[in-house]
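Per reviewer request, we include the raw input and output of the structure prediction for the construct analysed in the revised manuscript.
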Amino acid sequence: MGLTLPKMKSPGGLVSTSGNWIFLISLSAILIGYVLWPSLRLFAEGLKIPLLLELFSSFSSGNSRALFNSVWISIWTVIGSGILGTVMSFLFFRYEFPLKKVLVAMAALPLALPPLVGVLAFLFLYGESGILPRGLQAILSLDGVPFSFQGMWAVWLVHVYSMYVYFYLFCSAALQNVDRSLLEASSDLGAHPATTFRTIILPHLRPSLVSASLLVFMISMASFTAPLLFAGSENFLTLQIYNYKVNGNLEYSAAISVVLTLICLLFLLLIELNRRGSRVSTASKGSSPIPIPVRSGAARFVALFCAILIIVFLALPILTIILISFVKEGSWTWQILPQAYTWDNYINLLGQSDVAAPILNSFRMAFAATFANLLFGVSAAVFIVKGRFPGRGFIRLLSILPFAIPGTVIAINLIVTFSGPHPLAGGAILVGSLWLLPLAYFIRHIPLIVRSTVASLETYDDRLTDASQDLGASGMRTFRKVVLPSILPGILAGTLLTFVTALGEFVSSILLYVFDNRPISVEILSQLRLYDFGAAAAYSVLLMILIGSATLIVSYFGGSSRSGVVR
């Protein structure tokens, strides 16, 4: 009598051999066709030694200054953001002081501001014609404004405001795993708080600080909006790419794009190496430390004063945008504050078709791109984590590649690739069409859903899949009934982040849009140039509400998955 052995299967196997082939071919075709090939075309167009030598012929040339300014401002952005974000996370972790709960609630507030909206808020508040300079001029009876918010320091301050959050989030997550017993032992041995911070806290934070520094440097290098509105006569690499393209010199634009891409790719590689090198257990053997109350009168006064300053610094830009959104067109010229207010800016958003058109355009393009990202991202994540087939590392690498490509460069990639008939466009020319911009949104946001879903799948217990299949469930039924409910928070987090980021996307949009599909971000800039500040601010408030709502949902459902997105 023969004994029938059960058929062996790989742990947690969700993808069959034929399914692996289908996944590999489909995912590779999309990533090679829309991510890798356009980048290679750009390098073929711009990576020419004589051309690069011409563009960077001397230190005094505009492109050399642009490279220096981009690197210089990125270094100081890392320093400023690192100090502010790390200090805030440590003080919230270690001490109890007045207004702490308010500060904790507001600490991540800049995440609700799309880049263009944040820059617009600083322009209304601190610009040469802004509320604060004119207010100080009136109070001090000066002939002119006491300061002008423009130039390198203005770009730096906007960067610090928007990017310190990465240090704050990374360090706050790391501090949750600090062992209380270590801090108590240090205190019992009579160590000064500064010594405790240097010998215990700082080594624990080092991986997070390195990751945040690399990430912030890369994001700062790719920054476009703040230099566009505040840099004045100073050059930046992203501005050079834009200016050359607008002036019709695509070859020069491609060459600068190659330089910027190589820098960002280097930092993406360093981020990945640091992430893998620091992937160690951080479980705490004891409970988390209890915050120390600040009891002395002088210390409480200083803590309260600093807390109020930070609250004002964080809240003023948002409050300014909300105030200006009620301004009647033409009522704010030389005055400190607007002289007439109206609800018309909001009524027009819904009541006038030409005003509502950019909103509908953004929703349609964001929805189309997010739906494509959802299908692609979940499929890629399942193949990367649960597939049992060569090629997973290749798919993972190409899936995170768009994260290192600045928005200006992605736009130039697509212009170079699809300026003529192309098989991936069905033989059509996409440049100048309605489809190029949603394609750019899709490419830019590939890493979001892939990384958030991968983070969820890596914590998924494969024994649940094995049990389902042992009971006779098919692979598809197992995925739908067992796997999907477990990883849904990560998918939801990545999907919401993708949608709201696409809604407010500006950098690629300004290079690729046509009038019929102009998005909200481009319309905001158009209204600003027409001096209709109220309409520009009303669009901005709409974006803030959408992004703020999505951020709350992500924080509720996405918890641990969000860290997978940013890292």
